[in-house]
Amino acid sequence: MKVLVASSEIVPFAKTGGLADVAGALPKALRGIGVEADCVLPLYRCVDRDRFPFTGPGQAILVPLGNREEEGSVEETDAGGGVRAFLVRNDRYFDREFLYGTRDGDYVDNSERFTFFCRAVMEWITRSGRRYDIIHCNDWQTALIPVYVKTLYADREPFRGTGTVFTVHNLGYQGLFWNHDLPMMGLGWELFTPRGLEFYGKINLMKAGLLFADVLSTVSDTYSREIQTPEYGYGLEGVLYERREDLYGIVNGIDDEEWHPATDRWIAANYSADDLSGKAACRRDLVSVFGFPPGDQPVLGMIGRLTAQKGFDLVERIGEWLAEQPLRVVILGAGERKYEEAMEELGRKYPERIAIRVAYDNALAHKIEAGSDMFLMPSRYEPCGLNQIYSLKYGTVPIVRETGGLADTVADADVNPAAGTGFTFRRYEAEELKGAVTRAMAAYADRPRWDAIVRRGMALDFSWEASARAYVDLYGKALRKRAPKG
Amino acid sequence: MVESPNTRFSLLARIVEISNSNIQVENRLKHICDFLSRETRADCVCIYRIDARGENLAPWVSSCVEIEECSAMDFVIRPGEGVSGKAARKRAPVFFPDVKTNSPALAVPQELRDFTSILSVPVKDDVYLYGVMNFSTLAPASYTEEDLTFLGSVATEVAGTIRNSLLYNDARKRVSELITLNEIGRAISSTFEVKETLGYVAKTTLRLLSAEGCTVRLADGGRHGALKVAVDAGYSRPGLRRELRSVGKELARRIHGEKRPLLINSPEDSPLHSALAGHGIVSFLGLPIVSQGQSLGTISYYSASPRLRFDKEGVHLIQTVCSQLANMIENATILREAQRLAQENQDKMQRISTLHDVARALMSTVKMERLLPIMLYALISPRRLNFSRAILFLTSEDGEELCPRMAMGPRDRQEARRIGLLPRGLLLDSALGAAEEEIRNLLWSDIGNLTIPLSDASCLVARAVKEKRPLRTESGCPTREGAGDAAPRGGFCGSHPASFAAVPLVAKGEARGAIYVDNLFLGRTISDEDILVLTMFASNACLAMENASLYESLESALDTVRTTQDRLVQSEKLMALGEMAARIAHEIKNPLTAIGGFARRIASPRAGGGAHSLERYAQIILKEVQRLERIIDETLYFSREMAPAFRNVNLNTEIHEVLSIFREELEDARISTVVDLSPDLPSISADPDQIRQVVWNLVSNAIQAVGGSGILTATTHLADPAEGIGVVLEVSDTGGGIPHDVVHNIFNPFFTTKAKGTGLGLPIVHTIVEKHGGTIHLDNREGTGVAFSIFLPLVPKEAGTGDRILEQMRKGRVNGNGNKAHPG
Question: Which of A36, A105, B44, B752 has the most CB atoms less than 10 A away?
Answer without folding.
Answer: A105
